[in-house]
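Q: For a teaching handout, I want to show students what a protein-ligand complex looks like in token form. Below are the inputs, and the small molecule is 2-phosphoglycolic acid. Please produce the holo structure.
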Amino acid sequence: MRQIQVFDNKMEGSRAIARYIANLVKRRQEENKPVVLGLATGSTPIGVYEELVRIHKTEGLSFKHVVTFNLDEYYPMRPSSHQSYAWFMHHHLFSHIDISAQNIHIPDGALARNHIPAFCRGYEAQIKNAGGIDLQLLGIGRTGHIGFNEPPVSADTITRLVSLHNITIEDAAADFGSISFTPTEAITVGISTIMQAREIIIAGWGQNKAAIIKKAIEANVDEHIPASYLQTRPSVRWVLDKEAAAELSEVPMQSEA
Ligand code: PGA
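A: Here is the structure, written as tokens, with 2-phosphoglycolic acid included.
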């Protein structure tokens, strides 16, 4: 069932998502079971990670039994580079919580090109061996991408090397100083990989996402709008701020998780 929640601002939306994740992590810990989270990067989830760190520090939430798989990484990219998603995750989340290093999985942007196909097959196998993703957190790009699945993309895609859309490269250029320094490729999980997650939360903040969010939710499912594939599966929760929801036909206001 699709659910759309609209918050006054991204801080409130981020807190609601973090609380939901924290409750899942806590529940699984009480059951003595691992929990597998699919994690996203970019500006969208930063507030969620800040709040999870706060919950860890002030409420003692443990991440020892949490296994993570990140959606994507630029290619080529050294994990130690400050522009890498590996660095992003350590900076915003992993270095502040008690997760075990061996439970963290991020596509490796430093591989030789000819090693990428085997790596991608291995990444899919690691997700399966971990029991599949319990909860996938997503942002949405202005191209409608989820992960780095740029349009057009088919529903059966799995982890692979992809080319980035020009709009995505433009949006990333600020982080790299200029377009000429911005990677044009990435390793990303596929639409099929994402759709197999048991639960999905997709967040969107700000007016510049409003048009693509309307298309993703209200237009027909289309390979040119990658996030529209989310319409085809149950358990997708959209968490938006007012600006990002501004173009939706119906805007349910929500004040709590
Ligand atoms: P952003 O990117 O969070 O930086 O807006 C979202 C995305 O590209 O998925």
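A: Two things your students might notice: Residues 3-241 form a domain with the Rossmann fold fold (CATH 3.40.50.1360). The chain has a mean pLDDT of 96.
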